[in-house]
Design brief:
The protein is of the alpha/beta class. It has three helices and four strands, in the order αβββαβα. The chain has a four-stranded parallel beta sheet. The protein is globular.
Amino acid sequence: MDSGVDRGNTANAATQPREGRVIALDIVPGAVPIETYQFPVRCLMLFGAEGPGLSSKALELADDVVYISQFGSVRSINAGAAAAVAMHCWIAQHGHGVRRD
């Protein structure tokens, strides 16, 4: 994925080590669909405000940018709904062994 935004994967990663990855969720050029994205086990998800989405700075700091596929109007989705969808995708990929009692 190349949206023309430097995600800081090289020099920034060397100077600011993190245990997880920063995943931005926004409908921007270069973002990948959530259905095909493999979420890392350890990650921090960033969600923007409805309408304007994430700031340019937030997108620059993200390791990856993912969007939630939608039909009809795709200008924005409620941030709470977006968080629920993204967390469900994460748990579907990594939820094995999670206690359900």
